[in-house]
Please model this.
Amino acid sequence: MFSHKMTRISALSAVALLALAGCGSSTDSASNQPSSSEASTSAAAETSALTVEGAWIKAATGNMTGAFATLTNTGDEPITVEGASSDAAGMVQLHTTEIDPNTGTSTMKEVKEGFTIEPGASFELAPGGNHIMLMQMKCSLVAGTSSVITLDTSVGAVEFDAEVRDFSGAKEEYAPGEASAPAHETMSEDQSMHGESDHSAPEAEQGDESAEAVLPQCA
Amino acid sequence: MTGSFDEDYENATADVEQVPARPASSRRTFVAGALGAGAGVAATLGTQYAAGASERNSPTPAAPPLQEARVPFYGQRQAGVDTPAPSYALFIALDLNSGTDAGGVQRLLRVLTSDAASLTQGTAPVVDQEPELATVPAHLTVTFGFGERIFDIVNPAKKPAWLQPLTAFEKIDQLQDQWNDGDLLLQLCSSDRFTLAHAQRMLLKTARSMSRVRWVQEGFRRAYGSEPNGQTMRNLFGQVDGTINPSTLDDSMDRFVWGNHEELEPWEPGGTSLVIRRIHMNLDTWDQSDRPAREDAVGRNLTNGAPLTGTQEHDPADLSATNELGFTVIAPYAHIRRASAQSRVERILRRGYNYDLPVQNASGFSEHFETDGGVSNSGLIFCSYQADPLLQFLPIQERLAELDMLNTWTVPIGSAVFALPAGCEQGGFIGENLFT
Model:
């Protein structure tokens, strides 16, 4: 009876399953996070040596946003994530965050060579660190939905559902010249997520000053 | 409830444990945690100030008890109703943004369910920016309740007939709109106030783009470890409060709270209802009444809560017993006489919490029926759970509103009714049955 909603449900199901499975051990050996919460791995990813856990995308109504997850290489050979794609975005890049040697500020830059993950290792995509950058957004991703991201890897395509969540962080600026607009300007547009509301002050201000139209919600 | 904390937990979660989809490991973890909790308390308390360095060096230090104290989230019924009430609670009423449609309600319930499922198990949600604060579950439960508007938006046909504000009790109510009603209730309970603070912050961040906070009520009972498990709570008047409660040790919880009763029907299988009444308690005028008058007002003694016709808390009250002058021992206006069931279904689960708000620039005394003044701002978050509030709660409340000596010192200042939906399994979300 839920067949038309299976995509979302399967993502949340995996989330729940791993959240419970993680009850016994509160520390993820692969990261210094106290909890290795959640996962949403599609059937395609389960058959791959590359597993995807805790995948999520920052909700956005503007033209760019970030996607995050923990990638684990369960195979015997190194795996390189060479790129990514999403039906919701016109362009998707792999990004890293690094200190600009000239200004000393933290900036995001494309990683053209991709992310290489050694056998048995986990690779964290997280706000303030490495991440998947979604640009030229075609539609708004709103919290409580999920969206499919496909990784192009050296072991083939790996597809996974990512839950869309409101998030105030992940605002680091781009390096000059890397992108058309500083990320923080565009990302602060997520305030206009409040579009359904008519009684919060921030959105009233947004409405006054925002020149950018809110994209229609992703299907 | 008369059983121990651990027995109550096992009993309360018995039906949950039969759900086949649930991994056996989580149950074992939980039970071990619950049993360990009691045993671990003495050792932990005795050593907590000296232990720092040596415990850090130990390869496998015993986990402090509340780190393992998990109440299962998934199941046919939501936790936080017939599970034992931990020390602290937050009741958060949200109002949905105007224009919210069914899709919006579903998105909100999905993300809140996802966060609640993680937090209650001591696991940080993916978007938790303080994941270190999510590691102590401390019996955390997150219980969802629906106001009328969720049904109006999603599925009016499923709206229970009783789901509406209670008719005002004109003789006693001084309701303040700031404590009334709400579209979506989140009831958070935990043995650790810090755990509650983080869970509240996480859930409100998750809900923020889709709703606004209408009110938050914060309450407390005795701290974890203060009293024997299963002991009936006391309110700030010093009264034993909640003696005649349905229990998970027999079928009374199942019958009266979950509606497994020939004269009751749950609004949906696994669902129930919650009436929250914020009761201001005037500690100043209460102070004017001496101990015999206090006991006479309720019909129970203050020492152990026994009815004035008995010696033990759970002795049945003899409402017809008279004294040597021919007066009934339990007065005509005594709370327990007025509250005693007049039909087969008039039983409710009281699972309230005390409140005691900080005051500023306060002095003097508060007078009868005043809800401010004096040096205290105290009361009870009265919580009544039952399958059908109109059949079970309302007749009792009507009698109490008409006559109850306790009304001398109490003023209802807030009122809300919520339909508590069934629980869900992994992969589902709380409230999913409204969308089918």
About this structure: Residues 1-46, 179-211 of chain A have pLDDT under 50 and may be disordered. Chain A touches chain B through 44 residues (CB under 8 Å). The longest strand of chain A covers residues 89-99. Residues 42-194 of chain A form a domain with the Immunoglobulin-like fold (CATH 2.60.40.1890).
